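The passage that follows is intended for readers who have already worked through the single-chain material. We present the inputs for a multi-component assembly, then the predicted structure in tokenized form, and finally a short commentary. You are encouraged to pause after the input and sketch how you expect the pieces to fit together before reading on.
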Amino acid sequence: MSETENLTIAPPIEEVEASVERRRAARAVRERVAAVLAPIVVIVALLALWEAGTRLLAVPLFLLPPPSAIVAAMAKNVALLAAGAWVTTLEIVLGFLLSIAVGIPLALMIFLWPPFSRAVLPLLISTQAMPKVAIAPLFLVWFGFGMVPKVLIAFLIAFFPVVINTAVGLAAIEPEKIHLARSMGFGAIDTFFKIRLPDALPAIFAGLKISITLAVVGAVVGEFVGGDAGLGYLLMVANGSMDTQLLFAGIVWLTILGVALYAMVALAERLVVPHHIIARDHATGGSL
Amino acid sequence: MTLASPDTAPPYLDLQGIAKVYASRDGMVRALDHVSISGRRGAFISIVGPSGCGKSTLMMIAAGLMAPSSGRVAVDGQDILAPRTEIGIVFQSPVLLEWRTALGNVMLQAEAKRLDRASAERRARDLLAAVGLAGFEHKYPHELSGGMRQRVSICRALIHDPPQLLMDEPFGALDALTRDQLVLDLQRLCAERRIGVLFITHSVAEAVFLSDQVIVMTPRPGRIDRMIDIDLPRPRTLAMRETPAFAHYSREILDLFLARGVLREH
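Having made your guess, compare it with the prediction:
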């Protein structure tokens, strides 16, 4: 019969499956290689263009040094940069931790106690409208030249997203989850720790990730205004002495520092809320 | 079924003259207008009605999660003034905790009730297996289909052996085949465990198929239009949906909807 003949000509489903799987695996490898290679190629190309451009056009060093000169400056000043980075890191981390220590309890009070929320929220939002850079000199007057004013400026800039994201995250739960908790017989404390807080963790971490990048800005601004140490201070010194290579070297270090601190918060998120990351990876078909 | 309980026995769930009025910006909204329902223990009672007839409000009140503006809720003669923790509750969405596995979500109820962990876990696994989720115990909600998630939520509502389930359009978001299967599963689970159900639905067929009694509500403000006893043999089968008796009950409910303007035949 012609039907059975067709069946014998067509490959069996196992074979089809195997070939589809081979194609899928090959595509996955290609995509993974491309994901790593593409940004590297772009960065290398940009650096090469920069190097060639500054050399061909004989751009003066103080205006725009070529990447090779920046790398040389980084190598020459490694001790200076490392010492500055240590101070700045400390300021950022302390400002960030202070943001959490103040921001999360504040968010809890805003969430749990509506009169407090009504009284404090407008004030909180108006402090955000105020340019924090403008307050930096005032902190200098109050707290001197040490680390304290930098930590406070980092905190002042960084704590707002922690407060808002935590408060919004706690309030954003589906009402059914709370109905369910009550009908199951959970008390207020169990409902909070077993259901509401874990539900809000993705939102809280979203706030923390914004916060850590803002803390970097805050610490550098603090050092600009009245620093005697740190990468921000180093940038000011390099700027003052027209040492543009050192200026770029400081910017590179600050960038690396910012990315590393962000990655640490993202890692903490991954450890605390794996379900959220897994769900998002499924949705987007890949990881960060 | 109804013959088993004498008429003199006090009703299990007794809602008397329930009214609920919401104050909204546009004035007062009458959600429920003097609704009285009483059911014996183990009865399967469905409430059908158009959207906005206060069905969900009625369920919240029957669950003790919301106080009526006036009227009385009693269970076994006891006034209900706090959430009823002995029942199982199922919403239209599964309301699973995304950070817990299927088993972990079912065990949430056991944790709330402080049940013995080992035996509760055995029960949870048995229940999951009974609704076809054996092997999925350690999957997270996002790894399950909509129908599977709703099955998990039904298991969570059953693990503490409740005398009654309150279900608010539990199959409303599912496809037709999954609905049919879950309706059959629910019938079997409730028959085996002698669990009563207060079942809220839009679906006339679902209500007739599952219920001992169907309560038809009017459009807002929600009043009881008619109570219809469904006298079909149990267990009910899918083929029964094609019988004249079944069609007669469906027709009666649809005629009410047509008469009230809920449905219009042009």
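Commentary: Residues 92-161 of chain B form one domain. The radius of gyration of chain B is 19 Å. How closely did your sketch match?
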